[in-house]
């Protein structure tokens, strides 16, 4: 069975690539390495994979250094290597390719593209091994032959020709002067002649005219270095004028004295697979009606444009376009007319786009227009006016005429936002206001700043009054032991009971409270109230219950959090071991001495510390070693789809294993079904929390639930 070696210093990435590699074919063998040196030691000891997948950026040794060391090992000159990297610069690709990389994939990797390219390289490796095996068999037969040297040589030549003719690849050899020494039957078939007719001719006839000079350079490089040239793709034209794509390798041809006398070229036809890849990639990235990029492609381009703009101080505008009254065309003329209108609208938008701009269809009647701003081109408002005018021009179908307007929301980078998600939100918000104003017009995101400021001012006033009037209440969501089914604690969750609006969801006021600093007094009240309630439970005899309270990153910036915890514990006389403080990855991302010191002081009190929403941030797992953590909480976004989505399940299992290996308790949030609970229990999660066990509820309901049921049944 084929063996794939996967090298990545991130455990999660290794598991994802392991799952992808396993799907290539049944029985695939996979070895995982987190350290380049360990991988090289295994290879030197005799482990020989058929394909190597390596990350580019790794500590101690990057992908380029690893590949150079790999190619220096005996027998590893021809093993294909795929390099995975987030770098977009051409220099990184060239360095990796010069070091001996076979293929290159951009991260985040498209799963189907990874599988397809890996399958191609495994097939090439299989053919290489087949050719090598057959050559070895032939060599053994020649060595054991007792016939005369002349007869043996004649026989070996005939046998070698037969062997090479059976290989499903074009194989040819040329001497140091570029004259063809040998060509197998596939070469003759491709060029419409007998292989013997090619012998003695220049090897230039084996490539297209524009490849003659590069092909000579490659042959000279192989002859001078004596090294196998890494596989590369190139396009050749056959006798019928058809273009075909080949995965090509070149290796030195040596005589009996081990002197290089020529170059052997083998080329595997991968045209069909390339076309399948291109078709699949096109289907994934383009809208089938207009042939414009789709939402996924636009989001990817927008992220890349943000990254490029950051490096080059470059500005751009995002136009979110909605066709007004598009439904009327479908209703009056039918869906064929609707599709024809969308195609026409796409053509009109593309006619306005500059060479660096991008137009995409992102919804039924929604388009996005990414406009790179330059001194010589139109401004964002000018472009928006042109779009309104272009879409509003009459549309004719089957002798009938109709017209639709366009509502457009425009946002600017970097003035309005500096991340792709916020830019999309800004453009859609401006679009809504354009439609609310009657449509067939555009709105800039800046025009809404005054209204948002007024709304923020009103909310700020309401929040201050809510603090003064004690309008906040705490609800409690049960936390259940996975092993016993017993309720072992609760997470305190904030609710705002407004006299005017009733219960207000946290998402409506907490983000603003973070921005204006009101979160500091609010969370101080939450901590004090939660500790008071927990102490009340203990007086009722529920001494086993533990209280979890969320802390905000703003608190660490503005107050002495350790002193605040000491104050709450002293005022309520709560046992510190019954308090758990939940922090987010944003807090540990700061990695400041002040934050570490504050958390250590809290831990020294006996209070446990949890990382909430684990896995959703961008921090390195290294912080786990630096901070005094006791628990990690797997975010509900992974739990929600883990039954249906193997990737999410793999992440959950990986996080659970990581937590246990570090001696941490693993808590799963958002558990809503028995199927999820079963998988989480099997994966080793210690504590469950979610609607399956109870929604957030007032304190009285929570204590009643605990008293009425000393054990919650968990399905095995």
Automatic annotation (TrEMBL):
PROSITE patterns: EAL, GGDEF, PAC, PAS, RESPONSE_REGULATORY
Swiss-Prot/TrEMBL keywords: Phosphoprotein
Transmembrane regions listed in the UniProt entry: none
UniProt entry tagged with the keyword Transmembrane helix: no
Cross-referenced CDD domains: EAL (cd01948), GGDEF (cd01949), PAS (cd00130)
EAL domain boundaries: 456-710
Sites bearing 4-aspartylphosphate, chain numbering: 55
A Pfam family of this chain: EAL
Domain of life: Bacteria
Domain PAS: 156-225
Domain GGDEF: 314-447
Domain PAC: 230-282
NCBIfam families assigned: GGDEF, sensory_box
Protein name listed in UniProt: Bifunctional diguanylate cyclase/phosphodiesterase
């Amino acid at each position: 069975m084929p063996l794939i070696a996967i090298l990545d210093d991130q455990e999660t990435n290794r598991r994802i690539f392991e799952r992808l590699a396993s799907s290539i074919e049944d029985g695939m063998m996979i070895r995982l390495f987190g350290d380049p040196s360990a991988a090289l030691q295994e290879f030197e000891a005799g482990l020989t994979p058929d394909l190597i997948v390596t990350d580019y950026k790794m500590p101690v040794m990057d992908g380029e250094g690893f590949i150079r060391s790999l190619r220096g090992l005996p027998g590893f000159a021809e093993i294909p290597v795929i390099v995975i990297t987030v770098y977009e610069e051409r220099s990184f690709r060239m360095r990796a390719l010069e070091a001996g990389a076979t293929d290159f994939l951009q991260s985040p990797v498209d799963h189907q593209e990874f599988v397809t390219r890996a399958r191609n390289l495994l097939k090439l490796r299989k053919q290489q091994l087949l050719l090598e095996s057959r050559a070895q068999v032939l060599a053994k037969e020649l060595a054991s032959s007792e016939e005369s040297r002349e007869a043996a040589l004649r026989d070996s030549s005939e046998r070698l020709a037969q062997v090479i003719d059976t290989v499903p690849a074009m194989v040819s050899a040329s001497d140091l002067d570029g004259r063809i020494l040998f060509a197998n039957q596939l070469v003759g078939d491709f060029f419409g002649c007998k292989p013997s007719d090619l012998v003695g001719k220049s090897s230039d006839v084996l490539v297209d005219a524009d490849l003659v000079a590069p092909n000579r350079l490659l042959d000279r490089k192989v002859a001078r270095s004596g090294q196998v040239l890494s596989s590369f793709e190139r396009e050749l034209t056959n006798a019928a004028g058809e273009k075909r794509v080949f995965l090509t390798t070149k290796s030195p041809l040596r005589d009996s004295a081990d002197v290089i006398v020529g170059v052997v070229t083998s080329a595997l036809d991968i045209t069909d697979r390339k076309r399948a890849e291109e078709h699949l990639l096109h289907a994934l990235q383009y809208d089938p009606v207009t042939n414009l990029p789709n939402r996924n492609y636009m989001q990817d381009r927008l992220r890349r444009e943000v990254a490029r703009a950051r490096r080059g101080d470059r500005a751009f505008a995002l136009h979110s376009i909605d066709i007004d009254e598009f439904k009327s065309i479908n209703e009056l003329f039918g869906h064929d007319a609707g599709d024809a209108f969308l195609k026409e609208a796409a053509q009109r938008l593309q006619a306005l786009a500059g060479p660096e701009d991008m137009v995409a269809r992102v919804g039924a009647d929604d388009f996005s227009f990414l406009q790179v701003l330059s001194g010589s081109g139109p401004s964002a408002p000018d472009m928006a006016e042109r779009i309104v005018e272009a879409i509003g021009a009459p549309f004719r179908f089957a002798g009938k005429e109709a017209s639709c307007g366009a509502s457009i929301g425009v946002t600017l980078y970097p003035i309005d936002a500096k991340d792709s998600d916020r830019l999309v939100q800004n453009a859609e918000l401006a679009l809504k206001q354009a439609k609310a104003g009657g449509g067939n017009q555009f709105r800039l995101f800046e025009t809404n700043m005054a209204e948002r400021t007024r709304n923020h001012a009103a909310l700020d006033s309401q929040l201050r009054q809510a603090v003064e009037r004690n309008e906040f209440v705490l609800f409690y969501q049960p936390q259940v032991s996975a092993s016993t089914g017993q309720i072992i604690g609760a997470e305190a969750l904030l609710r705002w009971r407004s006299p005017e609006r009733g219960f207000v969801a946290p998402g409506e006021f907490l983000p603003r409270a973070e921005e204006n600093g009101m979160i500091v007094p609010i969370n101080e009240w939450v901590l004090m109230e939660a500790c008071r309630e927990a102490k009340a439970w203990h007086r009722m005899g529920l001494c086993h219950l533990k209280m979890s309270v969320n802390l905000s990153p703003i608190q660490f910036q503005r107050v002495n959090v350790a002193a605040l915890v000491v104050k709450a514990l002293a005022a309520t006389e709560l046992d510190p071991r019954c308090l758990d403080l939940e922090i987010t990855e944003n807090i540990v991302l700061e990695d400041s001495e002040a934050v570490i010191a504050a958390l250590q002081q809290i831990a020294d009190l006996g209070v446990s510390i949890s990382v909430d929403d684990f896995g959703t941030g961008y921090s390195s797992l290294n912080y786990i070693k630096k901070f005094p953590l006791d628990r990690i909480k797997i975010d509900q976004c992974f739990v929600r789809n883990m039954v249906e989505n193997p990737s999410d399940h793999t992440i959950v299992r990986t996080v659970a294993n990581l937590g246990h290996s570090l001696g941490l308790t693993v808590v799963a949030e958002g558990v809503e079904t028995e199927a999820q609970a079963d998988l989480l229990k099997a994966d080793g999660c210690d504590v469950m929390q979610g609607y399956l066990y109870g929604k957030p509820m007032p304190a009285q309901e929570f204590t009643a639930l605990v008293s009425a049921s000393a054990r919650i049944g968990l399905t095995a």
